[in-house]
Design a protein that fits this description.
CATH superfamily of one domain: ATPase, nucleotide binding domain
Shape: rod-shaped
Structural class: alpha/beta
Radius of gyration: 34 Å
Largest sheet: 5 strands, mixed
CATH topology of one domain: Nucleotidyltransferase, domain 5
Strand content: 15-25%
CATH class of one domain: Alpha Beta
């Protein structure tokens, strides 16, 4: 039996090998990255047409025009002129005008400073009134 000297360390065989633990950690990391579901942020992206300075042809069908002012007031263009309407009565007014003009599209002129919520209320009301086409036209 050999005796060790006092100065030598005798714990060489008791070290813990960390390589398998690191392998497991990397495998778990890869698993969570691959299985994570990335959430796509829901945003509001209206289809805004390009600016067109050409006037419509004279034989074109009239459209229903709704204007949203910077202070979120809703104005409806009629034969008599422009009339302010409440957000709750937009749908009934559009339905009434659609009865007169069945092929008319609803054009919403919204100010850039108006809130998006007001635009959404008007656009939803137009869609509920079964308007064939709802178009957003921004105004400065």
């Amino acid at each position: 039996m050999s005796r060790r000297k006092k100065g030598q360390a005798g714990d060489d065989g008791n070290e813990i090998d960390l390589t398998p633990m690191l392998d497991v950690v990397f495998i778990m990391l890869i698993f969570f990255i691959v299985t994570a579901s990335f959430v796509k942020e829901a945003g509001f992206n209206p289809n805004v047409p390009e600016k067109n300075d050409n006037p419509p042809p004279e034989n074109a069908d009239p459209n229903i025009l709704v204007r949203i002012s910077p202070d979120d007031q809703i104005w409806l263009m009629e034969k008599e002129g422009e009339r302010r309407v409440d957000a709750r009565s937009v749908r009934s007014n559009i339905e009434r005008l659609r009865a007169e003009l069945p092929k008319a599209a609803v054009i919403i002129q919204a100010s850039g400073r108006a809130s998006t919520g007001t635009y959404v209320v008007v656009a939803d009301a137009a869609r509920e009134a079964k308007a064939p086409n709802v178009v957003l036209v921004p105004i400065e």
